[in-house]
């Protein structure tokens, strides 16, 4: 089978397409025929060696994929060959034609969801769900601000928040991205590159600010977030690419909380709750992953470059 391999940590150029032996499922495992693999910013951090997770070299990148069950190992009765699934991690990596998974890492994919969309389910939607409901504990009627709402996690957060009855504000860096955010259900969409957008945010909330803020680039926005969070509000840091200086008094005067979040920290019970909620939303149609671009598996290096560029638009997926 063809698969992307990383033999040393470094830039996108370390990603190479190779021919590997096909894996076989052992007890409690399933083999998935990958029809599409999702590309996430975290994949690039792991590849560079800058992430806390450092797999043994060489390895095949990727957590997210969608496809069909090719074969099952002994003791697997929840899934069957031919069944459509999305993956939530894998044993062998998902940037490949076949991915070996523990049975607990493969989840049914509703027929209404395409494979390309299914490749954008786990990391973006589970991250957004965990941030909104397990870390910030958002409830219907609250106001949420999603920074960088046009990317994979951002569009997921907008859809989840609207379905849960929150008032949703989103920001985007391009006109195309802002249009997408509006199409996903945000009631208010702003340009985070505009010089006065924080003042406008406060105006639109009558000076109250936001109960929940989901922050994708904390090293740029965290201090601004603390200036527009409501009393008792929560800022959830989903992503950051460096350090930032903040004024703690902004948090003090509002009794505000800054919460870190990593999907890798979710407990088995939390993950089970997330998958149940995501399947229900996908099946009902309230959740619908946005695919911004499909690239051949051989162009994984290009995908790693594109996923970190400003002006994100939906999900980037690789097609074997």
* Shape descriptor: globular
Q: Got a strand count?
A: 15
Low-confidence stretches: none
| Terminal residue distance | 10 Å
Number of DSSP helical runs: 10
Summary tags:
320 residues, alpha/beta, seven-stranded mixed beta sheet, 15 strands, 30% helix, globular
Summarize the helices and strands and which ones pair or pack.
Elements: E1 2-6, E2 15-19, E3 29-39, H1 41-48, E4 65-72, E5 84-87, E6 98-102, E7 106-108, H2 115-118, H3 122-135, E8 143-146, H4 152-163, E9 167-172, H5 175-183, E10 188-191, H6 197-204, E11 210-215, H7 218-228, E12 229-237, H8 248-252, E13 257-260, H9 268-284, E14 291-296, H10 300-306, E15 315-319
Parallel strand pairs: 8-9, 8-11, 9-10, 11-12, 12-13, 14-15
Antiparallel strand pairs: 1-2, 3-4, 3-6, 3-15, 4-5, 5-7
Helix pairs in contact: 3-4, 3-9
């Amino acid at each position: 089978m063809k698969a992307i391999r990383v033999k040393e940590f470094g830039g996108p150029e370390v990603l190479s397409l190779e021919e590997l032996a096909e894996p076989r499922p052992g007890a409690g495992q399933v083999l998935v025929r990958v029809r599409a693999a999702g590309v996430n910013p975290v994949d690039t951090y792991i590849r560079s060696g800058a992430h806390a997770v450092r797999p043994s070299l060489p390895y095949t990148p990727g957590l997210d994929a969608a496809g069909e069950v090719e074969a099952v190992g002994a003791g697997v009765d929840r899934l069957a060959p031919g069944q459509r699934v999305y993956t939530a991690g894998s044993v062998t990596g998902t940037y490949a034609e076949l991915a070996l998974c523990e049975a607990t890492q493969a989840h049914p994919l509703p027929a209404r969801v395409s494979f390309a969309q299914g490749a954008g389910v786990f990391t973006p939607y589970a991250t957004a769900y965990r941030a909104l409901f397990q870390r910030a504990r958002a409830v219907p009627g609250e106001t949420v601000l999603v920074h960088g709402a046009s990317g994979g996690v951002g569009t997921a957060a907008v859809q989840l928040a609207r379905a849960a009855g929150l008032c949703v504000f989103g920001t985007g860096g391009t006109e195309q991205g802002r249009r997408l955010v509006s199409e996903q259900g945000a009631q208010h969409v702003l340009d985070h590159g505009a010089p006065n957008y924080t003042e406008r945010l406060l105006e639109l909330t009558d000076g109250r600010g936001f109960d929940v803020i989901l922050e994708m680039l904390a090293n740029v926005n965290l201090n601004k977030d603390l200036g527009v969070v409501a009393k008792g509000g929560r800022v959830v840091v989903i992503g950051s690419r460096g350090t930032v200086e903040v004024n703690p008094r902004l948090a003090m005067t509002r009794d505000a909380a800054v919460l870190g979040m990593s999907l890798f920290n979710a407990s088995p019970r939390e993950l089970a709750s997330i998958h149940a909620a995501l399947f229900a939303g996908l099946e009902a149609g309230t959740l619908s992953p946005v695919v911004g671009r499909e690239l051949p598996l051989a162009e994984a290096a290009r995908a790693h470059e594109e996923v970190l560029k400003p002006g994100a638009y939906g999900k980037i997926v690789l097609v074997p």
